[in-house]
## 1
Amino acid sequence: MRAVAYIDLGILEENYKTIRAGVPHNVKVLCVVKADAYGHGAVQVSRRLEENGVDYLGVANIEEGMELRKAGIRSPILVMGGMLPWDMEEPFYEYDLEPVIYDAGMMERLKGKSFRSGKTMKVHIKVDTGMGRLGFRPEEVPHVVRAMKEMPHIEIEGCMSHFSSSEVRDEYGLNQIRIFEKSLRAMREGGVAPKIAHMANSGAITNYPEGYFDMIRVGISLYGSHPARELAEKLHVRQVMRLVSKVALIREFPPGSPLSYGRTFTTTGRTRIACIPVGYADGYPRALSNRGSVLIKEKRCNIVGRICMDWFLADITDLPNAAAGDEAVLLGHDGTSTITADEIAECAGTIPYEILCKISKRVTRVYV
């Protein structure tokens, strides 16, 4: 195999327990497993979380929810992307999935739909408190309440909102909490009392304890990364994924040799190069060209030249004992050395979410 992503479910469980222990006992925990659990494998991750008593699982769309149900997952599943215009309503009933309702058109679809099964659909109402993406405006909440009371086949299980910048604690975020609290009061005064109010995500776990309400939603922290690197000192979680390949070939080049596409790197002395069969088609960021590093024999080796679709080059001049077949760690630990998704993201000018989600299907997943 060219590359393997080892998913340590023991570390996943450890992270979950760390997060669970850090919030009050009466606060539920929703674990976000959308995007194939951020590239870690939604079914396998959900099974382990379910074994540990997770309260809710969060997915992006109906297809992701159906996949979990077909795999035997029984925990409550929140479809955070809601009911899209082209989605059929029936599968939400059939697979017991709870959609987020954030749009008047979506609400009208539910109002006008006649269900002969006699089943009740649980939904979560989303209020836009300042994210500016999805959700009813706070002033629309009374109308939502009146409309929902006319739908006996709909049960409002939850009410939710979303921080726009939970990685920092500021007045804007605190005001979002106040707006959400006001919206909750409006719902209750209108005769609709959601069972679960939830707003806090991974960043808010440390920055906004006032935003815990009845449930927190944990995503990136569950997998060992953080919305911002400075939060690593406040929430101690470990990298769940370890992405490895092997040195396929070693070549030596004299001074003045250009390497890889575009000749962006030229050797200044006799240089020993490891050729590693991983590239941007595997989800390894091209932005790490001439910037990133890889661990070989516990030593950081600089990536030189442009990362290609299927290969990249690493300078192993200072590793005279390196040989073809040696393990190359792109993400995770190698002895006492570690490369995190947070570090890679900072180097590549992006966020750890993207680093993890982009690791492609041609990278074999092995569950530890």
Note: The first helix runs from residue 9 to 21.
## 2
Amino acid sequence: MKFQDLKSLYELPFFELLARAREVHDVHWPKNEIQLCTLLSIKTGGCSEDCSYCAQSARYKSGVDAERLMPKCDILERAQAAKENGSTRFCMGAAWKGVKKDTKRFDEVIDIVKSVSKLGMEVCTTLGELGPEEAKSLKDAGVTAYNHNIDTSPEHYPNIVSTHTFEDRLNTIRNVQDAGMSVCSGGILGLGETVDDRLKMLEILSNFNPAPESIPINKLMPMPGTPLAGANPVDTFDVARTIACARVSVPKAKIRLSAGRTALSEEAQALCFFAGANSIFYGDKLLTAKNPQSAQDLKLLKKLGISPQSPNPEMESPEINSELPLAPQNA
């Protein structure tokens, strides 16, 4: 969608916007289901990047200690527990700028991915920047989706991060798409951005080719010691409006209600689900931030009559639309 179309959509009366989004959702996602994902930090802290929202940056005194890559046996134990608890996607995140082929670190990750992929869940990784060879190796090892958020608009991005560019993010996403992996890419609300920044972010995401398989919408959880520790909270209605616009602009994507759910009441979460969110991170911890407990999540879903979605480890990447240009390489 074009920016002006998104702006007109966003500015609709609230219930009219939600009705539009719900109509689109019911056409493309007729089953009353939600995807349950588990996110595990397999390498925490000590990151060289300066993302101003992230407690894992080595540049900030956030209280998060740098750790080595988790042993494979521990990761497999957590993955098996996630599967038994109902998760259909297991996402592994590592706090570093990126990974390079033919290094000990990358070889260890590939070995871990191969083992996790045998458990019958969808496998997602978020490992920072990727080149074409690294992306292909991850695909061959069994990764079904790669998470690489664009966070905000190209214009606002330099205010949030200086150690890489917005175009760097797009280059990694292009490499992931070319390797045949699905792209999981979204943004964070509450970075000091304007509504226009959020809509420009959605404009870029909606014009990816292939389209994103999933779009996480994160509500900033200000982390102590980071430059955004004192950021103002995002209004719940703004979160719901953004989710609704994401649903309309990328109808076939899973829209994931991600970080920040601890700050949302059950009623607020239900509103976001009605607006088009059909995926959540599920478990007791989300990287370095707390996440609603699994039992509470299942209780809420039962109240709403929503069932967990079945896993699809053989999931194919969305197809390229030959009538559209490939995802933009320049911001």
Note: DSSP finds ten helices and twelve strands in the chain.
## 3
Amino acid sequence: MAATGATATKELKIVREPRVYLVGRQVVDPAVVDRFLADHEVSWTTDTEVGAETLAEMAGRVCYMSYGKGRKSNAEFMQHIIEVGHGSVLEHGVWSFLITGVSRSFTHELVRHRHFSYSQLSQRYVDESDSDYIEPDVIAADPELHAIWCDSVNAARAAYDRLVAGLERRYASEPDRTLRRKMARQAARSVLPNATETKIFVTGNARALRHFIELRGSEFADVEIRKVAVQVLKLMQRESPAMFSDYTLEALPDGSVVTRTAHPKV
């Protein structure tokens, strides 16, 4: 969706919804698993084809050497793990995501989840002169507030462009063109608003993902990060039902959605 403000020199591009891409998952080496089982004279098979679920079950069973004993299905085993709160077992299941269409405000909150690993778009290297922006829904819904927001963002964009141009002239004696542009952008980015769109690559284990979904899927969380938490939950319920099927989605009176589980803090 596009909008223009009084100070705009080019189209202001506004992103309304984040996107979450599940780009990586684990695989199991069955030959090595079989060698371990043979070495310890035990037998075990699992009925899941999800690598992370297989590895989490294998890790859980090693605690008691319960291979071939007790709960037969992976879903039964993982349900028990979740019910008793044995969350460390879930840390062996890992996925990677690419999140786009989010603001710098969002990533400032996201990186507080210290059990995730991150790689984020660099404003020192990437030209932000034509970047997208994330407008809060509550501002977008009010024409007067929307106009104020657009004018403010456009003023920051114009200042960024002027600063980059001036700083590149200031560093004109630097022979390395890439370094010259980086030095200009790293100083000019100081005027960019938190609404600037960014992209971030995130890797996390199932336990960390559950914590993120519970904390950020709550009605008390920021609206933008809650949207991402809901998207992550939907992906994970398809990807690993054994680890995430205890969650439900609940609609609030305003039409937004929150996450719920009977087994928090696993």
Note: Residues 47 and 73 are 6 Å apart (CA to CA).
